[in-house]
Specification:
By secondary structure, the chain is an alpha/beta fold. The protein is built from 5 helices and 13 strands. Strands 1, 2, 3, 4, 5, 6, 7, 9 and 12 form a 9-stranded mixed beta sheet that branches. A two-stranded antiparallel sheet has the order 8-11. β2 and β3 form a beta hairpin. The chain is globular, with a radius of gyration of 18 Å. The protein starts with a strand and ends with a helix. About 15% of the residues have low confidence.
Amino acid sequence: MRTIDHAHFSRTELTRLSIGLFASLALLLPACAPIGTHAGTDQPPASQLTEAAAPSPIAAPPLPAILQAEAEIVRSERDGHWEKTLLIRFPQRRTTLSTSDGLVNAAAVANHAASPALWASLPGDEGRTYLDRVQARMATRLGVRTDDVVKTGTAADMDNLSFVTLKQGPFMVAALVTAGAKTNALRAGTDMSDYVEGQEPRGTINIILLTNARLSVGAMAQAMVVLTEGKTAALEDLKVPSSYTKNAQATGTGTDSIIVVSGASDQSAPHATYVGGHSMLGSLIGKAAYVAVVDALGKQNGFFLPQKQAQ
């Protein structure tokens, strides 16, 4: 995995940096992110779900030393179905802001992927309880409290993970993304939802952002905005349609999740209170999200940029 020096990186040189091989088109079904979504009617019953052909297993992402984090992929099985958890641990606790657990002084973050058939087999609101148990299992693995691990979940295959690092000046960012938008893509402000707590959500784009910069809480919240903008730009260029409104361009899925991890509390590390698009760090964050989401959706669902845009 090579790192892009953004100062010498032109738009025509944009390439997707990722791990693994392209997968065949896959149906993305229930994900257990904490955000509500339209329940839809096109989901087959659990009895009709089968394990899709798995992509080639990938190694854990090689995180640059400057990020002071270590990643591993924990593989397991439940009831004959695969489970794969991206676990990123820190040598010292890090401030994190997430759509799942809020503001946490975390020892680790985790993105848990499980077979669509496994998610579908969970009754009622069991998906949340299941993800809580995974969180506790990862905490036990690290010897920390359950609440010290920030988590999110998906039915996208972890072997379709996209990992992008960008560097410019004193800043480095890394985006780790799993994504699927076949059955749950929607257009914010257009699509209406009938989801209520207790129903099973489907489909998700999960983004974990790491940086060497020490971010204020406000900057972490602003980073979520920029990550969302980068994700939405990727969906637009890929021409991903809404699953619910004909001819509408999707802006996301109903269960998208973000985890922003501030840099270590090293006084020599750069500090940032503003990461909007006009800033160097903000532009890196937006570009990392864009490239990683494009790559992840290509591998999981077969959404690709037109050739003229990919060159």
